[in-house]
Amino acid sequence: MKKPLALIIDDEPDIRELLEITLTRMGVDCLSAENIQQAYSLLKNNKFDICLTDMRLPDGNGLELVSYIQTNTPQLPVAVITAHGNMESAIQALKSGAFDFLSKPVDLEVLRSLVRTAIKLKKSETKLVHKLIGNTSIIDTTRKTISKLARSQAPVYISGETGTGKELVARMIHEQGARSAGEFVPVNCGAIPTELMESELFGHVKGSFTGAVSDKQGLFQIAEGGTLFFDEIAELPLHMQVKLLRAIQEKTVRPVGSTNELPVDVRVLSATHQDLSALVEEGKFRQDLFYRINVIEIHVPALRERSEDIPLLVEHILVQIAGKAGTSTSSLSREALSKLISYAFPGNIRELENILERALALIEGDVIVPEDLHLKELAMKQEQAGAETNSNSLEHQLNGVERKAILDVLEQTRWNRTAAAKILGLSLRALRYRLQKLGLDKKQKNL
User: Fold this and answer.
1) Among 70, 23, 31, 63, which residue's Cα sits nearest to residue 48?
2) How many C-beta atoms lie closer than 10 Å to residue 243's C-beta?
3) Other beta carbons less than 10 A from residue 182's beta carbon
4) Burial class (CB in 10 A: 0-12, 13-18, 19+), 40
5) Helices H / strands E in the chain, number of each
6) Cα-based angle 265, 266, 267 (whole degrees, multiple of 5)
7) What is the per-residue pLDDT for 285?
8) For 220-246, what is each residue's pLDDT tens digit?
9) Is the pLDDT of residue 123 over 70?
């Protein structure tokens, strides 16, 4: 069997030799380069399974190599080696498409784990179990973004309203990546009692507190080699945010009651329906943790943004419900489907599932009619008609002026609400009220 081939780029002979020896003992062949130009030549003439490059090179920056590989051989995992503690460079590399990063001095165990994961990614075939249902362009873009993120080890922040399928997106990132053979461990940060959270995440040793009758593994250890998904991470208490930040940065955890640090190899994904940037401004969420988990963001669209997908989703959900109940599949009348398409779904796909489950429990025949849905009629069309009727009213005109003024300042401050409020002469609370009133609180921000 042909051995994996690694490309090592570093201008320091001692580091190149250390990396070569370590990888060779793992059964990986190596080719080395001292600079970017030598690396380009080797990349053109060889097929590599992994690339390790220093950030500082005699003829340029390691980010140039990351960009080159992303353009020419995006399937090749590339990891950058940064100076110790230089997280800014590491995050910049991850945003540019790097698979992962190493800090100097290189921890050989971390190196070996990184190489094993990268080779799995290069050789593995995608095994997609979960999928996003829909044919709209917005959901197609989301699927493509998921596939791209699956090839990285960077922390991903998944934003979106309640019920849009953020955990589904997290599972797809896990299943399409090199860690698919490992565990996918979801953590609902709002469901764990505060006093038990540290033990749940990091584990504990026997006798560390009342009730600790034996050693217990934490969720970080359970997810070893896999993915840890922090759902509703905004609910994480501040004191635990500090501990989580350290675990992510150092890739180690300390069980409660222990003096030993345990290395952990997990990928961290997180999500919440709340506005994390606003919570950072209010001091309710740590800025350093926000930047660490938000290396790359993916936004899950609301159902009302892709209403054309509702017929497909309805069909899929009805088949699932019938399969669980062991019954034949029911259908919707044309009028009922039309009613669902015109509904705004504040609870998104989760609400759609609940509506259909309730309808199936109540219908007498096999066809769901509008009356079976029991929807609260939305006044969307009435509101639009009313807006058109009152478009010349004083209130409407004033709202338009206020909306433009606020948007101009928010764009000027790159959506920094604290700075915008100061320029506008408002308190942060007053600005948030106006954003909500004008429908700007959900607008996508370019942070």
Assistant:
1) 31
2) 17
3) 20
4) middle
5) 20, 16
6) 135
7) 95
8) 999 999 999 999 999 999 999 999 999
9) no
Burial of 398 per CB tally in 10 Å (0-12, 13-18, 19+): exposed
Contact 20, 30 (CB under 8 A): yes
Kindly state the average pLDDT of the residues 340-358. 90
Distance CA 113, CA 150 (A): 17
pTM higher than 0.85:
no
Closest of 182, 202, 200, 179 to residue 190, by C-alpha: 200
CB-based contact 205:255 (threshold 8 Å): yes
Note the pLDDT tens digit of each residue in 77-120: 999 998 866 778 888 888 888 888 888 888 898 899 899 888 88
d(CA 251, CA 246): 8
- Neighbour count for residue 10 (Cβ, 10 Å): 23
For residue 138, name the pLDDT band (cuts at 50, 70, 90): very high
Residue 331 pairs in a beta bridge with 367
Q: Is 227 helix (H, G, I), strand (E, B) or coil?
A: strand
Contact indicator for 292, 244 with CB cutoff of 8 Å: no
The 3-state DSSP class for residue 272 equals: strand
Pick the closest to residue 150 from 6, 296, 349, 263 (CA basis): 296
| Cα–Cα distance measured from residue 360 to residue 181, given in angstroms and rounded to the nearest whole number | 37
Tokens for 443, please give them.
Answer: 């607008």
The residue whose two tokens read 């998104």 is 348
Q: Can you say whether the dihedral through the CA atoms of 363, 364, 369, 371 is positive or negative?
A: negative
Q: Please check the confidence at residue 397 and state whether its pLDDT lies above 70.
A: no
- Phi, psi (5° rounding) for residue 20? -60, -45
Q: Are strands 56-57 and 29-33 parallel, antiparallel or unpaired?
A: unpaired
Q: What is the DSSP letter of 171?
A: H
pLDDT bucket at 181, cuts 50 / 70 / 90: confident
